[in-house]
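Sanity check

After download, print the first record. It should look like this:
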Amino acid sequence: MKFEELRAFLHETNHGQVFDSLVAVEIGLDEYQCAWDAHCDMNPHAETDDVIAAFLIDVGEFIGVGDTDFDKVLANIE
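Expected structure tokens:
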């Protein structure tokens, strides 16, 4: 899955849109894309859903967003 496809997939839900925006702001689009490409390269035979889930967990941990923080942000947009 290409980076643009990942972002389009994430934008299908409010939760995904918020997460995508948060990551884009925190690390920038170039690093976001590099991280996605590297994650895909390290997991070439994994199922797409598994790669996406693992990537979102990894990038969430990298930018320091815990479940509680993310839930607070989502509560304000729903």
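If your output differs, re-run the checksum step. Summary of this record's structure: Residues 3-77 form one domain.
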